Amino acid sequence: MLRTIEKTNRSAPGLDAQGLEGQIGNTPLLNLERTAVDYSLAEGVCLYAKAEWFNPGGSVKDRAALNIIREAEENGLLRPGMTLLDSTSGNTGIAYAMLGATRRYRVKLTVPANVSPERLSILRAYGAELILTDPLEGSDGALLEARRLAANDPSLFYANQYNNSSNWRAHYLTTANEIWDQTEGTLTHFVAGLGTGGTFTGTTRRLKALNPEILCYSAQPSSPFNGLEGWKHMETAIKPGIYDEGLADGNLTIRTEDAYDMARFLARNEGLFVGISSAAAVCAAVQLAQTLTQGLVVTVMPDSGMKYLGERFWTEA
Predict the structure, then answer these.
(1) Domains plus CATH for the chain?
(2) Would residue 121 show up in a list of annotated catalytic residues for this protein?
């Protein structure tokens, strides 16, 4: 039996240090100036991106996972001795596993069997129990398996990231406010990819509350068969309950090949080694920015390229 957390006072006096959870959020906002120039954006258009791999779990999903756990504890849904269950394509699972280790929860995850070996290794390193699902069914297959397990075991807390409002609230409370402060309220456009829909939904709702004139665009794969791990083709996928189709001012579609090209470009020209979904988000932001003559466009880069080291496209010309 895992022991419950007990509050202790083991901090050395005078030291300015935080625990792991205190490192989540407040990620840098990077100026993609070289990208703006090389992709021929108008001189009056600036392009920025949040570098979410600075979170301790290495991705934007640390924000959602922490808020899901905190709000579940506050509402009595997650208690000592319970096991946290969810489906994941990797990043949210890593965040759950990391936070489960710090908070002494077991973590059980349903994961498509074709996720990158790096992600599987990280999940196993944190001690998560993995149930690998049919790779041909993608994230939807993992989602259906998690639902089946949750229905048959009351000892599980089913985090249900696709339908849990704590997911989008994490971005309403943190991501959006950081972007607003970091741009001093001058952003004109926001772009984010759609996976669970949490980042786009929460950030958009807060930004529009701060300034209704900000235009917010969602982005998704151009085809149901794609290599944009973590993103959903909403027309053919199980739609997340937290996804609001009427929220976006416009929708952008990205080809896998273009995201691969952008990943190589960012590594070789901006010095940014980013993941596929990050490259796809920059593709979408560039696609939008190319239609503007003035503006400050911000997107979110969910993770770095460290979990995609085995991908062969890195060495392509």
Answers:
(1) 21-55+172-315 (3.40.50.1100), 61-158 (3.40.50.1100)
(2) no
